[in-house]
Amino acid sequence: MSNIETLTATEAMARARTNPLRRFPAPDRDGERLYPLASPSCAPSFEIARSDSVFAIGSCFARNIERALDEAGMRVLSREFSLGEVGESLDDAANFFNKYSIHSVLNEITWALERERFPGRDILYPGAKGTWFDAQLGMARLDFPPEEILAFRHRYLDGLKAVVEADVVILTLGYVETWYDRALGLYLNVMPPMQAIRAEPERFEFRVLSYRDVLEGLEQLHALLCRHRTKPLKMLVTVSPVPLLATFRDMDVLVANAYSKSVQRAALDEFLIGKAGVDYFPSYEFVTLSSPEVAWSRNDYRHVAPELVDRIMSNVLTRYLPGGAEADPGAVTGEGLVSSAKMLSRLEKYDDVLALMEANRALADGSAEALILEATAARRIDALETAWTALTKATEIDPARPDALERMITLCRPLRRPGEAKALMARHVEDFPERSEFRQRVTWL
Fold this sequence. Notes:
This protein is an alpha/beta fold.
């Protein structure tokens, strides 16, 4: 195996001298880059315009990326599917959009772009009482005739063809524990249904992908996209931070998950060599290096908090938008500012919230939500005048928002401003007559 990079000693030393992020953070030096919210940096090789369309594919983390980009105002083609009755019956709970391994992604994109290679009815496994399963589409039970399922399947593949029209393709690698159908010569997206395993136990194999398996799958996918696209390929690749739920290997799931993520992360570095318009962005590092108290939603150590996804995509946009590569590495979008403040508040890092807002003053002053978060943090450390200033700005830029005005009224008590409280209450009566419950609670006034 060849090295992925070779430099002379002189070249290596010269490059080290110009890399400001060369040393690992320590508590007394760049510690804020690591804890509580990790901020790994990336070096874009291309730009993404706000008007660019995006297609995301891969594991469940790709759905988080789609949501964040959609809320940031970008067009996400991988969300613009119309799948008819069968697709609507699956709903989001079926996770049929998720592709958990590189081969699952490669299968679907191959079938979408080269339809003659689609196996057709052979990919349907019979279940009980006339139901069917498609192991490429999660574990959802399909309670429809095969002809209707296949018609839906072709609509789904038609939707996936948008991958050649999108300006930016985002690929998220999930797992390397896979299942293989020997009869079809096909890697499956999920474990085949138990009915199929019981009927033909020798047909299916559990396989753990190697470094070479992952790399070859990536190379095949890249070649496939380049073969069918007419516009230049701009591609972001990453590893999903979402860990294995359980393992089929004879080892601790913590150890199995470490292999699953690290082998894919390693393969991506070699995959990037010599590929113009293909970059790695560190969503995996953003999540796994951040404080677990804010990294995970539901406190389950598996589902990434939406605020952290917003922070990650804020980093991507600020770095990849025109001129972003030369921007301050700490620059954020409005979504990233709010999400970072929410996570810092959850950690009770109120001084850090105020420092974040001050460092992004113009951005904060244009967002009522950011200003309310600033006011809340200031109130927690008894910086009452700072809280008052932030709430005043929030009511000015979004006068239709009652919570900012109500917080100002409440703040008048510790500030000893009963006259202002009465004036604000009169304004509250006029602007929000339906919120009498709040007014009844202000008994001190």
